[in-house]
Amino acid sequence: MEQPLLDVRGLHVEFPTARGPARAVDGVSFRLNRGMRLGLVGESGSGKSTTVLALMQLIKAPGRIGGGEAWLAGDNLLAMNTAQMRQARFSRIALVPQGAMNSLNPVLTVRAQIDDLLDAHGQKPDPAQRLQHVAGLLQRVGLPETVADQYPHQLSGGMKQRVCIAIAIALSPQVILADEPTSALDVIVQKQVMQTLIHAQKEIGAAIVLVGHDMGLMAQFAHVVGVMYAGRLVEIAPVRDIFANPRHPYTRMLISSLPSFATRKVFRGIPGVAPSIVNPPSGCAFHPRCPKAEERCSREVPAEDVLSDAHRVRCHFARVGGAATAATAQAGTTP
Amino acid sequence: MTGALLEVRTASVAFGAPGSKTPQWALRDVSLSLPDTPSITAIVGESGSGKTTLTRLLLGLLQPTAGTVLYQGNRLGQLDGTAFAAYRREVQAIFQDPYSVYNPFYKVDRSLLLPLQRFGLVASRDEAYARIRQCLEAVGLRPGDTLGRYPHQLSGGQRQRIMIARALSLRPRVIVADEPVSMVDASLRATILESLYRLKTEQQVSLLYVTHDLATAYQIADRIVVMFNGEIVEEGEPENIIHAPQHPYTRALVAAVPPLDPTVSWGLETTEFVA
Amino acid sequence: MPTRAALQRILPRRGVAVSRETPGTWRRAGAAMASEPMLASGLLLLLLVGLFAMLGPLVINTELAQIGAAPPRQRPGAEHWLGTDVQGRDIFAALVLATPQTLKIGLFAGVMGLGLGCILGLLAGYFGGWTDTVVRTLADVVMTIPGIAVLVLVATNVRSMTVALMAVIVAGLAWMYPTRTIRAQTLSMRERPYVDIARLNGMGGLQLVFTEIFPNLLPYIAASFVTAVSSAMLATIGLEALGLGPQNEFTLGMMIFWAQYYGAILRNLWWWWLPPVAMMALIFIALLLTSTGMDRLVNRRLRVEA
After folding, report:
1. Which of B189, B200, B257, B270 to mutate to probe the A interface, most A CBs <10 Å?
2. Do residue A269 and residue B258 have CB atoms under 8 angstroms apart?
């Protein structure tokens, strides 16, 4: 079993409220290998975006990282000081943020923005090399070289998003974090941007963490899918496993509630309301909405149950109703 | 009465300063009619397709630059006071953003109470509240948890369901729903879609469901209309649209929906790279 | 496995995401004060000035403010706490009479200016078209007229300027800026979906403007109110100090004018010009603290909610 590229252990993020600290991310652990694509799925308040922001130490006060470690090639990202983190950002771990299209400076050309990043890390100071590098980046994301000298408002949404991906890979980081990169885009463009992301990943040999709420996209994009609910990682498994044999009731109900082209006029919604992290349910956060909930569920937070090498669940009844699956696909082998 | 309940005939809408040489056409020669019998029509399109402009035309919030909008065979612009009031009551709307449809200054009760009083549908406040409670329960909400609160105290799903309850309480004939579930959490979408579907089956209300999500349209619609760039490019039964699309745009739209089965290939890892 | 109904009975009803009740208005006001000391101190100062103005006549005999009521040019002492001026007026008594007058002018002008600005701004912003064009042009034109010019014109053509007249003129010069800003706010609010819903309810025109849009402008108006009052007061005092104010009535600005007219500075009658200046400074500091404090309070809420 090779050493994981990114090893996140027990990540805690909290922010203070009038009632005491609220846990936005509660003990999340996962491992990422080279070339792997991890999908983090969850709804609003699940903590998925906060998780990736924490890895870049981008949590804004009064929120704070309450604990945990994130080992990237021998260094703990969460323990780095300001200078070290600034160095690591984009050169070792990069982020394509939510609404990335709006992260582009409207008064600078694309080239100027990429130059900014390269200058900040002292990369490719030779002008000829620089020009070549920028052209190469744009080509990797499928954009013509002429885009470099255009302003963001001259580009379409999909093109802007691809510029953001180009910026993310500019320094060939080992890990790319993508926070809902296609939420604001039309469906047709969405597919193109996802293709771009995979292509870019392969070119630089990075691993990707994709945060989103679209299970269908995860089914096609991710090797491993992690489901988050109320700040906890309730299930994580290889993608085929999780769709064929979801062990957590939330995962199961979520998958069956999704519309597909297979059936019509059948609606299987999840009753109840999304949990509030400020005032979360006691014990297992899903128990108010869970059809299998028993008295124990409101008292005890389910510990992590390792069903197989790669399939982990947080549910008291994960093993009930069928044998636990044998490891089907190991996480992280060549995609 | 047979014939169309609500229709637009060769309507076009242009935006831009009057007299400018290049107006932007949001809608071009669009004709659509909703039949008299309760039905669910889905309008599917992406941003810039003109679907939102079309809903504003049908709701009488916008005048067409060319063409006509008719309610029960009469032009909207020519309806007299009583007829227009009837139109306002019988054609209701549900919008995309469950937060900004509420005036943050007032409690949500007002959104439910006001239209009932204005349209003279109830004789007293008690009667109004009785009807409101009934409608809230019909969409799966507990009146005790939702009434008397301000919008910011409720979740997105609750707020959207209150809007559906409001539309329901007016006993309309048509509800125009513009992306009603896109800003709602995935786990709640099916429940809300079910409430909308039951509007047709249990309340005999027609629904115009406008969305960019082909999968949900397939779920509930009797008929799907595909729009692109201000025009209708294809329409037909959901089975045909999804499994045998004719127009290249429709085909691209269908192909752009990721299949829920990881074993089915979608072509993300393509070597010929799409630029 | 227990039935769902049985479970509902056992499990405590936690995890319902509906948030707690909003605490009562007084509680919230109290919390706001506690968290924003600037706001609290500003309001406290205003309260003290107000009490001074209202209760002052009970403490001192205002007849002492008449000419010749006391020996002139007395230094502050036991009998006349702030001394007397060259015409034998007790300064403390004069201050007690002048403060409420100045406050009245500022308040009246501020309220009138803002009130008019609200109405015009709302109508222009919501209805657009001709209403908007007329209001906008009017506001833009009047904005460019300097207040001093207007006042000089009026002062020279009126037999005697009064506090009331002064207030009306300053109000007439104070409505333009609020009109513009409120119009801008209305333009953006007009596009909100809840306005669409109101139209779908069959509501139109004036009723919509005043029941849907106006209430959401209240926070903005409250903040603008303090600024409006303080700029009205500043304008008034400035004009009065130049001698264009009411000649026969007591206001803080006029006190300064008379002090300067009779050479109080040269003659080192510091107790004459200092009290009105100090009172004015106090009022302005109070208004500044209140408006900054309110601004910080509202912004902090916005930042936390984001």
Report:
1. B257
2. no
Q: Does B158 touch chain A (CB under 8 A)?
A: yes
In a mutational test of the B interface, the residue from C18, C28, C211, C304 whose CB has the highest number of chain B CBs within 10 Å is: C18
Q: How confident is the model at residue B273 (pLDDT cuts 50, 70, 90)?
A: low
A44 contacts B274? CB cut-off 8 A: no
Residue recorded with tokens 């001394």:
C83
Domain ranges of chain B: 4-14+24-255
* Final residue before a domain boundary, out of A162, A188, A222: A222
Q: How many CB atoms lie within 10 A of CB B124?
A: 9
ipTM beyond cut 0.90: no
Tokens of B111: 């959104």
Residues with Cβ within 8 Å of A94's Cβ and at least 6 positions away in sequence, in order, are A167, A168, A169, A171, A173, A175, A176, A177
Tens-digit pLDDT profile for residues A238-274? 999 999 999 999 999 999 888 888 888 888 888 877 7
- Asked: is B4-14+24-255 a CATH 3.40.50.300 domain? The reply is yes
Q: Is residue A65 part of a domain?
A: yes
Token pair 């919390």: residue: C31
- State how many domains chain A has: 2
Please report whether residue A169 resides in a domain.
yes
Size of interface B-C (CB pairs under 8 A): 59
User: Do the Cβ atoms of C11 and A288 come within 8 Å?
Assistant: yes
Please check whether residue B177 touches C, CB under 8 A. no
Class of domain C38-62+81-305: mainly alpha
Distance CA A88, CA A75 (A): 10
Spell out the domain ranges in chain C: 38-62+81-305
Tokens, residue C187 = 């333009």
CA distance A333 to chain B (A): 16
Q: Does A63 fall in a domain?
A: yes
pLDDT band at B272 (very low <50, low <70, confident <90, very high): low
